[in-house]
Amino acid sequence: MANSTVLIESLPIREQEKRREKGSDFSELSRRIADAGLLRRRPLYYTVRFGAVALALAGGVAAFVTLGNSWSQLFVAVALAVVFGQLGLAAHDLAHRQVFSRRRPSEIGGLLVANLLLGMSYGWWMNKHTRHHANPNHEEKDPDVAPDILVWSRRQASRAKGLPRFVGKHQAALFFPLLTLEGLNLSFSSFKALRSPSMKRPVLEGTLLVAHFALYFGGLFTVLSPGKALAFIAVHQGLFGVYLGSVFAPNHKGMPMIEEGTRLDFLRRQVLTSRNVRGGVLVDAFMGGLNYQIEHHLFPSMPTPALGRAQDITERYCAELGVPYYQTGLLASHREALRHLRDVGEPLRDAR
User: Fold this and answer.
1) Cβ count near 261 (within 10 Å)
2) Measuring CA to CA, which residue among 4, 3, 2 is closest to residue 256?
3) What is the 8-class DSSP label of residue 113?
4) What pLDDT sits at residue 311?
5) Alpha-carbon distance 34 to 42, whole Å?
């Protein structure tokens, strides 16, 4: 499973037909998870976690104001890149209703955190992420593996033209440099999406986005000289993008890609295309619980602190079914993702 350059063509589901008479494989796992009480909301956990992120953000802003027009502000930029990454993880949990069970408070919190604090459209990202969860690593249906710049399968590489064809030749080496632009790309895509018919509240979202950047650029260019302000933006946005990419890339990149027409039930579709990342408390905090990617995809609304126990239940259940369940370390997951990028780009390098 570590080197997943081969597409899933068809996976046998023989035993599944018998199990369907008594209910799907996922329904049995869902029953076990519910019986363990792992879907209950954890208000104390999120109060502490979000409170810590809010304090870190306030501390970063206070340090920025105190230091004034100094090159020491670049250290503040580094710290705020981490804070922004944590804000992104908070917006993710709000969007999945892990924090609140009801839609309205989840949406209000998501708009404030994503649009106002991060400069990223909550509505645009929610639409994109929902499609990803429905069809992870699907060549045609998962927007996260669309060949916009990078190619994620040899099939995509064979069809690549323009920029993806050029970048795809050396995409493994270019992956982390490209991540430095991810924060800016999220904001650019957010503004672009305001004109989309799928955007439910374009005026509200646009207003919050404008407010974010008015405060962000206004504060930077008021306190810092133009050169220092541009340096701050480069460090802050660049590291913010790398942080986000380092959290999301290990989850699916390098795992099997799914072609159109492949038949997989819900449990197998989520488990086979996802990778868990081991590492203990530090990795849990760094990745905001998304290192339990298999469990998160199976139970998107499950609160973060319940994912570790859910992992034990899910791994044992997959062993009962004979469904491959894959997890590895953080550095190994990145090596596998980069190896996959290099392998699928090989036809482009070999082309004359």
Assistant:
1) 8
2) 4
3) I
4) 97
5) 15
Regarding pTM above 0.85, the answer is yes
Nearest to 30 by CA among 314, 292, 290, 231: 314
DSSP for 178-235, written as a single string: HHTTHHHHHHHHHHHHTTSTT-S-HHHHHHHHHHHHHHHHHHHHHHS-HHHHHHHHHH
- The DSSP output letter for 329 is E
CA distance linking residue 45 with residue 304, whole number of Å: 9
The CA distance from 221 to 339, in Å, is 41
DSSP 7: P
Q: What length is written for the chain?
A: 352
CA pair distance 218, 32, nearest whole angstrom: 52
Task: Extract the tokens encoding 111.
Answer: 């708009």
Whole-angstrom distance, CA of residue 113 vs CA of residue 119? 9
- The tens digit of pLDDT for each residue in 186-202 reads 999 999 999 999 899 99
Residue 79's Cβ-count burial label (10 Å; 0-12, 13-18, 19+) is: middle
What are 102-111's pLDDT values in tens digits?
999 999 999 9
212 close to 122: Cβ distance less than 8 angstroms: no
Quick count: other Cβ atoms within 10 Å of Cβ 229?
Answer: 18
Closest alpha carbon to 57 in 6, 9, 105, 112: 112
Angular region, 8: left φ>0, alpha ψ -120 to 50, beta rest = beta
